[in-house]
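Minutes, project check-in
Item: structure for the 401-residue chain
Input as provided by the requester:
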Amino acid sequence: MRLLRRFVAVGVVATVLDVGAAVVLVAVVGWHPALGDAVAILVATAVSASGHLRFTFADEPARRWFANAPRYLATAFLALAVDVGVFWALTARREGLAVLWLVAAKSVSLTAAFSIRSVLFRRTMFSAVRADQGSPLSRPPAPGALRLSLVIPAFREEDGIASTVARVEASLGHLRSEGGLEIVVVDDGSPDRTAEAAEAAGADRVIRLERNSGKGAAVRAGMLSAQGRCVVFTDADLSYSPDQVLGLLAEIEAGWDVVVGSRRHTDTRALVAARRLRELGGRVVNALTSLVLLGQYRDTQCGLKAFRSDVAKLIFSLARIDGFAMDVEVFHLAERYRLTLREVPVEVVNSTRSTVHVVRDTWRLVRDLFRIRRIGRGGGYETSAADVPPTLVDPHRVLSN
């Protein structure tokens, strides 16, 4: 909660200073409303920027908003013009301005200026994040004994997991002689014999969680135990055919840190359409991710994602969300640590085997979006350079906001 307290404290100090200075300069000193308001805004803006840079956003992606001096100053002056214009319009024709009226007018002008800053903040941060993510980096080879690890979280899949493992082996088994492959099934505390069925089907490793904890917990357990240089997770119902993993593997080996499937990509094909309610829930969630993410992604919830092994270790050692919002948390951590990210089209078959309950799980996901924001603001994702795998250390990218 330390970061949240700092954020609130700096915001309160800057706001009180802005309103107080404007009222004093106009009502007490007798300055013209426009001049008094402009001076108050300049002082409050300087205090706010300095406070957030030093105390609030030292390790936050949003630090780039303050560090981009030309855009920050341009936005600050535009917001100043809006604030002064509204304040002047509300006070110019009134004689003997009362303190309460000045406070009310200032509140309206602050709201208008805040709206302008918020819109331009989103545009600036979208550009900054996408610039970070936009092209692969030249990094040392990823560590790992195998070429690929495929992690499959499973819950109540006793009847279907054998078919899943067989299909994966048929599509990807040739990698065993081309660098190595492991199929890792994570049984998320299933009350049936999912784990035993996965072992009998030939999964290389089966991890058992003692209790049902959610997709995020299952994926995290598998990703942190994986031995591949490229680590991919996909859904047990194989809505995305296993052969598509090869495309993600190629992108990771071409230098990308994170490669994610996107069902909203212009080249994506839906071989079996999703039910209308499920599609609506997905669109609502994608719209709400703007509360957490800066990059305006087409699709955060696609169940096919690939990572360099060192990137997977960094992200999933910090991840905290056990439910379906874990996908959003992955994007947030990629943004925070300035990792490259590529969205690729997929072919999706919306399987009837899915254990997703649209209304219930959409509600839980939305709840966890706010939790991700609280964790980030509270310092829960903070780490030190010593915690970053050596192969990812880059003074211009990771941990350099």
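Outcome recorded: The first strand starts at residue 146 and ends at 154.
No further action items on this chain.
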